[in-house]
Amino acid sequence: MPIATPPAHQAPQPAPPFKARTRSFEYAQHLAARPVDVMPFLTATGERAWAKGWNPSVLLPESGPEGEGAVFTTPHTWWVCTEFSAPENGRPARITYAHFTPGRDLTTIHITLAPEGEGGTLARVRYAWTGLSGEGNAFVEGQTAAGFEQDMREWEADLNATLRQRK
Predict the structure, then answer these.
(1) Could you tell me if 125 and 95 are in contact, meaning their C-beta atoms sit under 8 angstroms apart?
(2) Taxonomically, which superkingdom (predicted)?
């Protein structure tokens, strides 16, 4: 009796390559203090003064002022300050953070602070999100211009309220 040949099976096909989604928005804020006076409020611990619910755990530096190279965490997210430079020779102050939420996204936040009027600051804030998974891509695609603008307006109002109290 001949032995039956098993039916042919197709070899498993590799999963299609992952294609990260990215999205970026920028907003201009008008702040009620000079750039050098705003900068301390844009550190991990400085934001506690005005950002509701903000309570990071600072890993570096262990003590002293935060700035470039600072590393901290918030629930589920790792942060690093990659640039923290004061205004110099007419160049605006620059602050950049990158944060990584494992399995979801990598986000960069670029902030420039330039003098505006008498004692004010024009802050340009740009967020760029990149998805690291299907879930991350859905998160990135959920970022909207209207939502970003609302978040930035709230940030501007809360930071200004704190800056005005400190004068």
Answers:
(1) no
(2) Bacteria
